[in-house]
Amino acid sequence: MIEVTSLTKVYGTGDGAVTAVDDVSLSVPSGQVFGILGRSGAGKTTLMRCLTALERPTSGSVTIGEVNLTELSASGLRKARHRMGMIFQHFNLLGSRTAADNIAFPLEVQGVPAAERRARVAELIELVGLQGREHAFPSQLSGGQKQRVGIARALAAHPDVLFCDEATSALDPATTEQILDLLKEINRRTGVTIVLITHESEVVRRICDAAALMASGRVVEQGPLLELLADPDSRLADILLPVGDVSLDPEHTSVVLGFAHGGTTEPVISGLTRRFGLDVSILGGAVETVAGHKVGRLRVALTHPDGGYDRDAVAAYLAEHEVSVHL
Q: Which residues form the ABC transporter domain (predicted)?
């Protein structure tokens, strides 16, 4: 479990002070893939640096497991970082070392015996799908292969948490999908907690169990992804499954429907027409598979020939079919 409590990071003093992270609190359950989504300048990278204790927060605390990182000495922090793995956007591999030697590097730093290092490297080469490329140098590897080396290196010391800072931003779309699927498989097989910092909504949509949305240094929304996507009022859902804004509805008769556990195979829309005599116009929407579940959001305009309808009854009908609604 990662607990972030009232975390603030301010750079500079006086009139020149800049608050990069502003009173952020987060809870990341153990074993989950947790995404932190936001635009450039939202404070994501500064938050990541505080989570990994590369930056000391101005105030607040970061606790991983039972260890409060903000209370540790310099030597205590070095020891705590052995339980963290880090994956970078631009790989940060050592060009003079082979793939296998890059993976082994953190184990060498920790003084792990050579035979144990070789066994662990062989295990990780198989895990990330680099058989046959272990003796290649970074200059001989594709971008996706370099990131696989980076993932294996981050896992070498059996970390409790794997931090990924824009880990797929330098990759093409097809390779991005492969790397994300690999991270999800690693999470499934090892149980390692993964925290992803990203500006790409597809990263969150494809593999995350839960997520937080950052803007202007603050977390404006967080929670289990399926719950957020089913919430018609969710700002994060608007980013992940956009349905268009109210400008699509000049008559101001539209509602937003959200469904995550049911509703995708039920004739809900036709049921509205039959039961309530409503005319339904679909203005925008999306249906995706997220975390193994079909989820969707629709913006629909509901009108009645007589000019009005019982909104409470409509909301109750939709709730019976596990569809949430913002009327």
A: 2-241
Q: Is the pLDDT of residue 4 over 90?
A: yes
Neighbours of 115 (CB within 10 A): 8
Q: How many CA atoms lie within 13 A of 15 on its CB side?
A: 0
What is the architecture of the domain spanning 2-229? 3-Layer(aba) Sandwich (3.40)
Element containing residue 94 per DSSP (H, E): none
CB 26 within 8 A of CB 219: yes
Name residues whose C-beta falls within 8 Å of residue 151's C-beta, 6 or more positions apart in sequence: 87, 128, 179, 182, 183, 186
pLDDT-derived band at 190 (thresholds 50, 70, 90) equals very high
The per-residue pLDDT for range 95-138, each reduced to its tens digit, is 999 999 999 999 999 999 999 999 999 999 999 999 999 999 99
Superfamily for 241-326? ACT domain (3.30.70.260)
Indicate the Cα dihedral angle 36, 42, 47, 48, nearest 10°: 60
Q: Residue 87: which H helix or E strand, with range?
A: strand 84-87
**pTM of the entire predicted model:** 0.88
Token pair, residue 250, equals 């000049």
Q: Residue 247 burial (CB < 10 Å; 0-12/13-18/19+)?
A: exposed
End-to-end CA gap in the chain: 37
For residue 17, how far is the Cα from the chain centroid?
29
Residue 153 makes CB contacts below 8 A (sequence gap 6+) with 85, 93, 102, 103, 105, 106
| pLDDT of 251 | 65
The tokens 């696989």 sit on which residue?
Answer: 148
Given this model, what pLDDT does residue 265 score?
64
CB 79, CB 69: distance < 8 Å: no
Residues 164 and 199: their CA atoms lie apart, in Å, by 12
